Amino acid sequence: MNDKKITRREAIKKTVNTSVAAGTLASMPQWILPALAQGEELVLFTDMPEDYSRPPARPGAPHWLDTRMISDFYTDNQDFYVVQHYGQPEIDLSDYTLKVTGLVDREMEYSLSDLQGMNQVDIDAGFECGGNNTGRFQGLIGNANWKGVRLQDLLNASGVKSEGTEVVFFGADSGAEEIPNRDIEVEQSFSRSLPVAEALREENLLALEMNGENLPQGHGRPVRLLVPGFYGVANVKWLTQIHVQDRRHMGRFMGRDYVTLKREMIGGEERWVENSVTRIQLKSAVVRVTKLGNQHKITGFVLTDGTPLRSVEVKVDDGPWQAATVDPRSTKYSWKLFTMDWNPTPGDHTLVSRATDVNGHVQLTAEEMPEKASRWENYAQFPRTIRTS
Ligand SMILES: Nc1nc2c(c(=O)[nH]1)N[C@H]1C(S)=C(S)[C@@H](COP(=O)(O)O)O[C@H]1N2
Ligand SMILES: [Mo]
Description:
By secondary structure, this protein is mainly beta.
């Protein structure tokens, strides 16, 4: 990190995470505390520790949201979750280059200003880490407006040869990978791939900006891949090379890590099957409850792979599924926040949501889900417990 100074925001944030003194609440930035209307209060979930806290956002470190604080459509860049596996490489912007190599008619090299000079488009996209889970109350998630150059434009400028079947994306970050049954390690870059047809989707971006700012260091400065509708792992940060080849890419993050292992019926046979973590599975969760007087409001999110939603519903205790209202700002690839008004009796309650897409695909309960051995792709319904007064 080149900036060791602790800003006032960070200083305040550090305080918040050790102890939240009531008197300091008023002076906190809105992204630390839930945006509350006059007289509105946060109602605490009983499935979360009373003193639930998370480490402050620190340069270079992982970070996740306190999902009870989700109230804005766009996640603040300072609070958007951060995950990386080999640390965060520092890229010197003046000699940054992005190479396009392999099975193309013209190999190319772009500087940052070359990319900045190309046609820019923007898209709203929300995503979660493939490892997001109920233990962190779904905090490895965020939604932002991303702006940059269409991946399609670079691929077309180079001309993908007809033998090219797979596009590999390499980041500037690397780490030592142990070779099984050999006493050696090799240094490998973070990498992911897409089949050519998928890489050519017009919504894929080489993002230079996030919510109107240059891409922050923790989110891949200066350029990251954004594959809308895919889990976070697809969105290669600190992108330096795009390589077209005629075989599957078997890198760690395609072939060994971020691989889901679950029991499925395969042509009438029950088998354990692996799949690389790619498209976001239909998911929703209740994350926040507020009240104004006795008028309660339940808020949650939905993530999809871009397939339109038919409905999102909330069930209170053993009651019926009731339709929630989806935030009209939602777009195809953004997260979709939903709300439902609630007038509870005082006491303990269980709240759960489920999303259904236009194809009638319904988010299942944990019990209904196929048996899964790996920790990736957690999209079962998430029942929350809460006490109202
Ligand atoms: N270069 C690089 N890109 C990466 C990663 C990484 O380790 N290195 N981690 C991936 C994973 S697993 C996730 S969940 C997302 C997180 O993106 P964010 O930190 O901007 O939220 O980045 C992805 N892109
Ligand atoms: Mo991830």
